[in-house]
Amino acid sequence: MWAMAMKEFRQMRRDRRTLAMMILLPVLLLVVFGYAASFDVDRVRTVVVGPGAEAVAAALPERLDVVRVAPGEGREQAVEALRDAEAAVAVVTADAGQPQVLVDGADLFSARSVVTELRGRPGLPTPEVLFNPGLETSAIMVPGLMGVVLVFVGTVATALGVVRERQSGTLEQLAVMPFKARDVLAGKLLPYLGVAFVDLVVIVAIGVLLFDVPFNGSPLVFALGALLFLFVTVGIGVLISTVSETQGQAIQLAIMTMLPQILLSGLIFPLQAMAAGVRWIGYLLPLTYFVQVARGVMVRGASFEALLLPLGMLAVLGAVVFGLSIARFRRDLAPSGRHREHGPAGQDRDAAAPTRAGAR
Amino acid sequence: MSWGCRGLTVRYGATVGCEDVTFEVAAGTVAAVVGGDGAGKTSLLRALAGTARPAAGAVRRPDERRLGYVSAGPGVWADLTVDENLRFAGRAYGLDAAELDRRIGELLERTGLASARDRLAGRLSGGMRQKLAMAMAVAHEPDLLILDEPTTGVDPVSRAELWRLLAAAAAGGAAVVVATTYLDEAERAATVLVLDRGRELLAGTPDELLAATPGLVVEGTDRPRGVPSWRRGARWRAWSPDGSIPAGSTPATLDLEDTVIIAQLAQDERRRGAA
To answer: Could you tell me how far CA B201 lies from the centroid of its own chain?
Structure first.
């Protein structure tokens, strides 16, 4: 038994990725959890509109963080502010009578904290919950979970698909064939993108039909967000494949990229409730922006203009990650490419290249 | 038309794959690259094929559309059928549908894979998989065909069949480079390059190499003393650098294996002398 244990220990010591997962990951998760795992939203972004808005804004509880006061606007503009995620609460004042308090039901935890605070307090208006009137968790979680599925297909399946070529020796075969690196990559990724889109349609259908998740916005905007998000996740998958020799390594790395996204993207714990020291990580993660797009379109019916920021961030992340992955993939596929001299027709020649590591 | 390299050095970080190797293969001939593990055969072939970057020297090879390559893998797609693998290779090299159909039929007959046409490549035996890889590499009738140890780990019957295929490719005008650890295979080639620790040990036709072997090779039932020796079956062979015949030994018929062993012994002697 001891011989077996020693052998296992020696192998584990050399498998740095698994060691990192076993030692660093729990520490990381615990620290992150400690700072990120909170459903308590202390400050809720609020707009106040209507006559006497300034006076009402000054009298609001501290939890309601007033970001805009607009005496000239009315209920219509207030609803638009919620739809565009400018605020989670809108207070609409009137010349006579109690102000209306509109709450964005898509911002579930903010909404619950406000509703809990205001309900049962005599003299205060009963809040009206828009977009997700029943404050259903499924209406918020399902759009976010669609992103998780796309991460799985885009990152894990893609990484495995490319690493499988390297493991089986066929990547070297592709490197010799008259393919450009972009042809190989595009040809490899197209089926995964197709399947991911089919997956998305099925999940949306299940969400809407089985879980009564609303779909109030434009399918085109949603599709655009999904496509941009897929580019990022697929790019991450290709990047993982260029630094992995085996499928096991690829899966480990994919898990390490998926976990922070699930925990810090606002999918489970609201970003506003996270400590600032951890929240900034969420703003670097692609799932954060897809969740905003998915919830914005499906639950709020947000417009393309209102979602320009998350869509733009996905486009930027996609360009960076995909660009990097193509550069690395091209290096794997055509290490001689840059130093090829062209001789007489049909005759290529590799010149002496600057000293450089030639193999992975 | 000939292809090859001049002063080729391939490095992988601090490790030298091959160093200062000059090698040429003419159209219509087979050139064998011989050496043990780590000799530099794969580095040389990868540089010829364009999958390893030269750190020094120059490589001359045809356009990638005129190149065929069988890696040590071999590079067949296990979850595609024999037909699908051939069809993919043919389309990759630009064969049109009609030509591809004709060529696939021809190759399946020549390789004896016709009955396994619809079988997944992952379910083929080692020899059949190598034949499929070779068929994929010659589907487009390349000018330069590079094969990295196509017969290693393959049964003797399949080895013979594979050599018939690559000889047919050479007869069709291709320049064929084959890396092998089997010296009996190297004897069938028009030229032989022997690598040792990444450097050229011997180069020339098999007859030239045999003729240039210094000293005498003897054999006997007992191991002779005072001279370098090695086993060959049940008997011992030895190298007598000065041509003398040790007691109990008789002159042996020289072959390429002896020549390579002697060259390595002489090399080791020179290194010891230099140290």
So the answer is: 15
Query: CA A125 to CA A101: how far, in whole Å?
Result: 7
Q: Residue A347 is nearest to which of B50, B62, B74, comparing CB atoms?
A: B62
Partnered with residue A49 across adjacent β-strands are: A70, A92
Domains (range + CATH), chain B: 2-204 (3.40.50.300), 208-274 (no CATH)
CB B90 within 8 A of CB B164: no
Confidence band for A335, pLDDT divided at 50, 70 and 90 = low
Give burial (CB, 10 Å; 0-12/13-18/19+) of B238: buried
What confidence tens digit (pLDDT) does each residue in B179-219 have? 998 888 999 999 999 999 999 999 999 999 999 998 889 88
ipTM of the complex: 0.85
Is there a contact between B244 and B274 (Cβ–Cβ < 8 Å)?
Answer: no
Which candidate from A170, A179, A355 shows the least CB-CB separation from B75? A170
Which of A320-324, B67-71, B228-232, B246-250 is the most confident on average?
A: B67-71
Which residue is associated with the tokens 């005498």?
A: B216
pLDDT value of residue A334: 62
CA-nearest residue of chain A to B143?
A346
Q: Are A81 and A102 in contact (CB under 8 A)?
A: no
